[in-house]
Fold:
Amino acid sequence: MKKLPLAIAVSAAILSSNVMAEASPVEFNGYMRAGTGLGTESGKNPSFEKFKLGRLGNENDLYGEFGFRKEVYNEDGVSFLLDSMIASGVTGNNGWEDGDFNIAQFNVQAKGLFADKEIVLWAGKRYYQRHDIHITDFYYWNTSGTGGGIENIQMGPGRLSVALLQDDGGQFAGNYDDKGDKKYDESVTAYTADIRYAGMPLWSGAELEVGFNYSYANEKNNQTLVADDGMMGTAIITQGFEGGFNKTVLQAGSGSYGAQMVQYGSGAWYDRSGDNNDATGFRIINWGVASFGDSIEFGHQVMFASGSDVGGTDTDDTSYNLVVRPMYKWNQHMRTIVELGAFAETINNVDAGGSKFTIAQAWSAGNSFWARPEIRIFSSYITDNEGTALNGADNEISVGIQAEAWW
Structure:
């Protein structure tokens, strides 16, 4: 009985807010990929180093994101937006599968509260200003998590954004697993400070974005932290032109951020084990999409990275890769896509490398490089220089079908 007045009060508040303010309908958005395939060595379609070799014909999971956004208040130029998303990933091997569902986003964004009406005040869990390369699914700058901040503050020619996000980790607490390896099972409370300044014009069609990240831990009572804090700097030059764009990315880091440079890290999941206290590193990335006439589009990624003292070893490490994805559009909905990729690396005195060639026939909702949904029938030839990933083989041929969509 005591719950009834509360329920009535909540209902009344919701109804009154709907009457007071014109709010938008619920927006449904998301992403999915799913498919199946056969592999000569792995049985099913393999997935081998897609960040480095490209994702086309090199994914073997079912992944989905289901997002719901609603502007719950809009009055006198002030709006409050509720943004939510559930994500789930499974193997896709059976018709019924138990999988984990993750609350990927759940936040409130308020706009119009300040004199500069473009400023956004936000708090909650959020995909925060992510930077990625689609053809490899490589997120090279992604500090998403739970936190809060203020963004789009006009300062000079660009806009400033400042955020603080939680990024907990683990450290060694004297426990070992069955193999005698250290278990990093002592929780460490840590945070990432994120500062970005974007939209600075350079020359015709070009602009610059720069950012700084600082990862630090807040030790508990009677806790001694073993990992040093780390810093990461990022600069992105974007050149737009008719039919496409090109981005050049420069990043450098210390501590675990230094290790992430050669390990294809994103700036999140900072290693708190202490193994990378002395690590430093940098990377240079160039990627983009260009059109050549009405029928051909071309995407690419090239990266070189260097690091030292990664994993506590007194070594110099290197990692580099190249991926190209040309496509020929037969008509508005049918295209032929080719993707070639290669990588090589030496990290902690361990060499690795491989290559991939994929050809796909695809049908899509439009003829743009970015047109989705898309259904693809593909065949891939993948090599592993070390012969450790493809069920012990050094090469594999696979065929399959996949769908990908965003909306």
